[in-house]
Design brief:
three-stranded mixed sheet, seven-stranded mixed sheet, globular, single chain, 29% helix, 10 helices, 422 residues, 14 strands, alpha/beta
Length: 422
C-alpha cells in the first residue's frame, strides 16, 4: 500500500493544476491546429515547391566559402559557364581523331567516312567571361598518384575517352595502357601512378542491363536500394564523374524490383519515370555522403545529354532527324522534346534538398544546339545494315552519341574549369 502524499507533495500537485482559463486556451489552440492543419501543410508545401522549381543550373554552390579539393582559383563572380554561345575557332580540334587510338569505332566519324569537319571547330564561349584553357599538364600533375573515375552509360564513356585523348599525348608510348575488366575500363599513366577509369552502370543502381557488352534490353528493370552492388568498385576514387539519364527513358513508367534478381517470384512495382529517377539520384547522393571525403575528393554529375531524333523540333522536315545536319541550332531558347524538363526538375529538387557537396555539370542546353555533332551514320554498326536501311539513312542514323573529337571535349573543358576554378 502506498503511503498518503505528504503535505508538501499535495501542495505541488495543487500548484500544477491548470486553471480553467489556461485549459480553455490550450483546448482552443489544439482545435484550431487540427482544423487548419491541412491548410498549413498546403502553404508549407507551396513554399517548398517554389524554392525547388528554379532550373538546375541555379543550384547554389556547396561549401561556397571553403576551398574545395584541387581548386587553384575561382570563376569570376556572376559568371555562369553553362550559359553562352558557340564560336568558330580555327585552332580546334584539341586533338586529331587519328592520333588517339582509344576512340571506339562507334565514335570515329572521320574514319567512317564523314565528309565534313566543321563540327570539330566550335568553342563554347560563356556570356561575360571565358573558360580557362584546358591545361593537360596541370590535369596530369593533379592526377599524380590519384584515381579519376567516370561512372554511367555510353555517353559518359564518350566523355571518358575524350579525357584520355586530351591527355595521352603527354605520356610516352611505353608508359600508358588501356585495359578492360568486365564493367571497368582502366587507362594507366604509369609515370604518374595515375588511372583514368570508366565503369559501366547505366542506372548507377543494379539492373538487368549491367552487362558491359550485352545490355540491349528493352524491358528494363532496376533494383531498389542496390547502389552498393556497383559502388564497391568506386571506392577509393579521388575524382568521380557520374551520369545517368537515357536508359531511364522507356516511357512514362518504369519497373522497380523490390527484392532480388535471384528471387523466383519477383516483386516488381511500376512507378513514374520521374519517381524512379528520383530514387536513383537519392541513392547516388547517399553513396557519396557515405564513401567520399569532401575534404579530399570531388564528385561531379553530368546532366542529360540531348538527342536530336525529331527534326520538327528545330523547324525541320517531318520524319527526319540529325542525319545530314551540318549546322547548329541558332535559337538560344531551343529545348528539344527528347530532353525531359521534368527530369531536370527532379535533379534540381533532389540536389537542393541535399547537403552533399557535388558539382553539377549542366551540359544539356549548350549541347542541345549541336544537332551537327552526332555520329549519325558515320560509325561502325553493331550489325550489318539491311537493304531497306541503306536505302533510308535516316532510319539508322545515331542521333544520341557524339563524334570525337567534338562536343564532348567541351564537356571536359567545363569539368576542368569546375575542378580548378569552382
Amino acid at each position: 500500500m502506498k503511503p498518503p502524499p505528504s503535505s508538501s507533495s499535495s501542495l505541488i500537485l495543487r500548484k500544477n493544476r491548470l486553471s480553467p482559463f489556461l485549459f480553455t486556451l490550450l483546448a482552443f489552440i489544439v482545435f484550431v491546429t487540427i482544423l487548419y492543419s491541412e491548410d498549413f501543410s498546403c502553404i508549407f508545401s507551396q513554399l517548398e515547391y517554389s524554392s525547388l522549381s528554379a532550373p538546375p543550373d541555379s543550384i547554389s554552390r556547396m561549401n561556397k566559402n571553403k576551398k574545395l579539393p584541387f581548386a587553384i582559383g575561382e570563376t569570376e563572380d556572376g559568371c555562369d559557364v553553362f550559359s553562352g554561345r558557340w564560336v568558330h575557332d580555327d585552332s580546334r580540334p584539341l586533338y586529331e581523331e587519328e592520333e588517339c587510338p582509344y576512340i571506339q569505332p562507334q565514335l570515329t566519324c572521320q574514319k567512317q567516312g564523314r565528309p565534313d569537319k566543321d563540327y570539330r571547330q566550335w568553342r563554347w564561349q560563356p556570356h561575360g567571361c571565358s573558360l580557362p584553357s584546358f591545361n593537360a599538364t596541370l590535369m596530369l600533375e593533379t592526377l599524380r598518384g590519384k584515381r579519376m573515375l567516370y561512372v554511367g552509360d555510353s555517353l559518359n564513356r564518350g566523355q571518358y575517352v575524350s579525357m584520355v585523348c586530351l591527355l595521352h599525348r603527354l605520356i610516352p608510348e611505353n608508359a600508358k595502357s588501356m585495359e578492360t575488366f568486365g564493367s571497368l575500363t582502366v587507362f594507366t599513366a604509369k609515370d604518374y601512378n595515375a588511372t583514368i577509369e570508366f565503369y559501366w552502370a547505366p542506372f548507377l543502381l543494379e539492373s538487368n542491363s549491367d552487362d558491359a557488352v550485352v545490355h540491349r534490353i528493352s524491358d528494363r528493370v532496376v533494383r531498389k536500394g542496390s547502389i552498393n552492388k556497383h559502388g564497391k568498385n568506386w571506392k577509393g576514387a579521388d575524382i568521380v564523374v557520374f551520369n545517368t539519364y537515357l536508359w531511364w527513358m522507356t516511357g512514362l513508367e518504369f519497373k522497380i524490383l523490390q527484392g532480388s534478381f535471384d528471387d523466383e517470384v519477383k516483386d516488381i512495382a511500376m512507378v513514374s519515370t520521374e519517381d524512379a529517377y528520383r530514387m536513383g539520384m537519392k541513392s547516388m547522393l547517399r553513396w557519396v555522403k557515405k564513401n567520399m571525403d569532401p575534404k579530399k575528393t570531388r564528385v561531379f554529375f553530368t546532366s542529360m545529354s540531348p538527342s536530336h531524333q525529331k527534326s520538327i523540333d528545330w523547324g525541320g522536315e517531318p520524319n527526319m532527324n540529325c542525319y545530314n545536319e551540318t549546322t547548329m541550332i541558332e535559337d538560344q531558347s531551343y529545348w528539344g522534346s527528347d530532353s525531359r524538363k521534368s527530369i531536370m526538375e527532379v535533379i534540381g529538387q533532389v540536389f537542393r534538398r541535399s547537403n552533399v557537396p557535388i558539382t553539377f555539370l549542366n551540359i544539356t542546353q549548350l549541347s542541345s544546339y549541336r544537332k551537327d555533332a552526332h555520329t549519325s551514320i558515320y560509325k561502325k554498326q553493331w550489325s550489318p545494315l539491311t537493304a531497306e536501311q541503306l536505302a533510308n539513312p535516316v532510319s539508322y542514323a545515331d542521333c544520341v552519341h557524339w563524334c570525337l573529337p567534338g562536343l564532348q571535349d567541351t564537356w571536359n573543358e567545363l569539368l576542368f574549369a569546375k575542378l580548378f576554378y569552382p
